[in-house]
Design a protein that fits this description.
The chain is 62% helix and 0% strand. The chain has three helices and no strands.
Length: 80
């Protein structure tokens, strides 16, 4: 088969339209970057920062509507 990857993908899409199916474009293949190892001190600092950032949200009261839904779910699970 000749043509660029995009041309082949468009041809497959045209065929897919006729058959009512979806054909994805080919994914670009590039090498993954090596994973970095994060030491314990850095992980702790990130965790502390996230806890400080989320503390305000965690301190907010749970909305009544959500509490009602949770109670209804608990009642449903308690029934045999």
């Amino acid at each position: 088969m000749t043509g660029s990857t995009d041309e082949r993908a468009v041809a497959r899409i045209s065929q897919a339209d006729a058959a009512d199916t979806v054909v994805p474009f080919p994914a670009a293949r590039r090498p993954r970057a090596p994973r970095r190892v994060i030491d314990a001190a850095v992980r702790e600092r990130i965790g502390r920062g996230l806890r400080l950032h989320d503390a305000d949200v965690l301190a907010l009261p749970v909305p009544d509507r959500l509490l009602t839904l949770l109670d209804a779910l608990a009642d449903t699970e308690a029934q045999p």
